[in-house]
Amino acid sequence: MNSKIKEILEQHNATLYLTEEPSLPTTVIDGNQAHYYVRMGNVRRFVKLSDDEIGSILTDEFESLLEAASRVDIDTPVWSELLAKLESVVGLQTRSEFEQLIEAAKLEEMDSLDAVSVALIAAAQSGALSYDLGKWAEETGVASKATISRRKTALETDGVIYTEKVPVEVGRPRQRLLLADDISAVRIDTAEVDVSRKESTEPRLAEDEPDSTTVSEQGNQKQESDQDEITSAIEQEIQDVISSE
């Protein structure tokens, strides 16, 4: 989630601040003009407040809140860089599995999603090496190799994944991550993710499931709706409103 937020911030040259104010509305303030975000049914629009005085009042209040707020610096790479690094270090199949699992999670649950466990299951789904995944996680700041190791052990204990030794020319054998025999569905914290049993290092779909790496149809519809709300109502509408003034 942090990677996605950082990517949006960089795309719009924006800065993120943290305030102790418990309930702030979604509002765009441009000078002394204010645009309020309205939701009703399927309608998502920013509406300009016609009262210039309230626009001025909101501007002053916003500047006061901003002065007291703390700037948030996100250390992780942007989402596209995170995926590109995963592909180069671990492999394209793991990147595809990881991206699909993350995208399947409900938007409102992204802040509590266990991304490390998701990465491990994606790697197991594609038969990647634990060493490579740990290297990617540490280089990108997602997690330390120790954290990857602990989470891997926990998933092994729960019967979700298992490993097999892969001999190397020099040094200790590496561990290949694989999905457990009897796994058909796994709940990773708040994200319900379906995964299929792997019999080889190539990913396959479960015979009785329409898609082995998807949440329920209802979850997909909710995620798509939330994504539309963000991309259309926040990014597009802000640009349209400001450029029309």
TrEMBL record:
Composition-biased stretches (Polar residues): 212-222
InterPro entries the record matches: TbsP_C
Coiled-coil region: none
Signal peptide from the UniProt entry: none
Pfam families, per database record: HTH_TbsP_C (PF23336)
Domain annotation Transcriptional regulator TbsP-like C-terminal: ranges: 79-183
Biased composition (Basic and acidic residues): 194-207
Residue span of region Disordered: 193-230
Official protein name in the record: Transcriptional regulator TbsP-like C-terminal domain-containing protein
Native source species: Halorubrum distributum JCM 9100
Lineage: Archaea, Methanobacteriati, Methanobacteriota, Stenosarchaea group, Halobacteria
